[in-house]
Please model this.
Amino acid sequence: MRPHCAPRGDASVRWQRALAAACLALASTVSLALPTFDEVRADFRSSETLVLSREGEVLQRLRTDATVRRGQWLGLADVSPALRQALVLSEDRRFYEHSGVDWAAVSAAAWGNLWNQRTRGASTLTMQLAGLLDGPDADFLRQGPGGRSVPQKLGQAVAAQVLDRRWRKDQILEAYLNLVPFRGEIVGIDALARTLFGKAAHGLDEREAAVAAALVRAPNARPALVARRACGVLRDMRRAGHSGAQGADCDALDLFTTAALQRRAFDASEGIAPHFARQLLRQAGRAHERVSQDGASRDGTAAQRVRSTLSAPLQRMSVDTLTRHLRELRGRNVEDAALVVLDNATGEVLAWVGSSGPLSQAAEVDGVLALRQPGSTLKPFLYAQAIAERRLTAASLVHDSPAHIATAGGLYIPQNYDRQFKGWVSARTALAASLNVPAVRTLVMVTPDAFFEQLRRLGLPLTESGGYYGYSLALGSSEVPLLHLTNAYRALANGGRLSPVAYAPAQRPAFTPALDAGAAFIVGDILSDANARVRTFGTDSVLATRFWTAVKTGTSKDMRDNWAVGWSQRYTVGVWVGNASGAAMHDVSGTSGAAPIWAEVMGWLHRSTPSRAPRPPQGLVRQAVRFGPGDGGQPLEGARQEWFMGGTQQALFAIESEAGGASETGVTGTNDASPEAVAARILAPASGTVVALDPDIPPAHQRLQFTAGGVGRAAVRWRIDGRMAGSGAQWAWLPWPGRHRVELVDAQGKVLDQVQIEVRGAGVRARR
Model:
């Protein structure tokens, strides 16, 4: 059907034929250039990406195009009736009557221009839409800096009539509202409503609708001019009988308009997974393009959406749980935390909470990816390596006693958290109860360099070397992100097999061996043993769940980081609590900081899903073991069934001799602090000892063990810097910084032996 380029009238036949020929040529070009309504809607690009949960729910709206602010495509039903009427009254009164071009308005405009009179513009909404449509063949319709030329205006008129015949009126109005620029970078009614008015477009009232309509005509005008034009729109709405505008007037419209034009309520990011959304888009590598078209808005419009692996119910629960527990810890100088949940089988991220949000002064810092000291959470990998290398078994006896390990910087003297030593304990007890000294002794067997390489195989991004960290690596002196640490624990859950985490639904993960499967199973069995952790955590620990789980806590230097990482049959959960600023927490331990959060999330995951212990892999042997007597004549530990790597099993674990060079029956071991039968002298600490307080333990909780040999039953006392401080062949001293002279004296004050020591780091001076 041929479009009308001019009204019917008594113009000359020659002029009409020439115009008709031009119209035919333009109509042919325009017909090829103009897209359909469905094509325009499908090609619409929001300036933001919607991150969807695995259930299809929107979790996060994230701005990914900084050049423009364009919201989601809205159907006409999602735009308030007030705005629709205001726009038509302001821009195109006869919109529903004309065929794309308002020839009456064109005639009035032409007559006004002839007599230099100001008249209402003749451009219709349909003509304006034609100029907004994108496409390689539609560039000639767009307005340039100096306005449209005569051919462009003619082409615009032809395009408007083509659109009017191809599209319905509601489609024209809907497309116009989504494509029209309003002010500055704002394009489309969704972005305008959320930016200037802080609400959805369907909730705009008559005043807001009038301001929005005024901005179409003058998008970058001063607030006063916009207010005057909005006032005119309000009056037109009143005359047209709009119910909401009957009582409306222009009072205070200046202030309202000024406030609206200054507001920027449409945040760049909104939702419950901001840190995960940014990481997902970084991983996808498509922050400015559509990754998938698997979602649709209510009107069927495809939007820029990314389907993720997050579970919406779990993410909400995790955010709420973390926030609630942090509120309880605020009195202990704790304001930050992070949490991640992984699916054991696929590596999919099911929950990711990067910070405590409004509770934090560094809410943008992603605690899931931040480098922090892991403390004792590295110990499971150390014992697994020692077991895999057949240096230890779960029943092997390790001496928890004062140790003095020579290093390039002096003697390294580790301490336990509770400032007490347990004597001979099994490796099972040492790991489950998180004893520091046995861990350091185990690292002496494995060597820091070998352990460093093992951690690298487990995916921990350590950048230095084993020699750089030294023996403190056993106690977590390195820095690792929560995500990588949790995925390394997931490798324990998968029999020592490691695969990358997945942020979007993917195919079957590619596993690589990172740790011996038998050693991983034994470590998991130890970390699930509530009885083995009793010595440190008690019988009613929050770590004890009603279903099978394996878990380890950790605390880093000066109480700066607190961790709980563990797994069940299906999930691995990692929690970090601390301060993004690095400030120390006050009186927060592994069971009061991260562990309650871990336990609650794990409990929610298994509220209706069972968790069973894994099956042992081939090559393991289970055997009954018993332990020899300790100092009091009672067995060191109770008899039990124990798991062994094939070929390392034995039935009895005992100490051959307590008088000289104690060692464990069947497994070679040494005691770095074994007393010797010599003349009265100081056995520990050695002269020249440099005591560096352990980073895992608050200074007030650390004591240095003094041991004297060859004294028999004689009464001896300890004198420090000339002042009597303690008595007995063994005595625990609460150190304070400085260089000290330690003397062993008899009952008459005669000096039997003396050593010089130095204490470095914060300390608490004992009362005199």
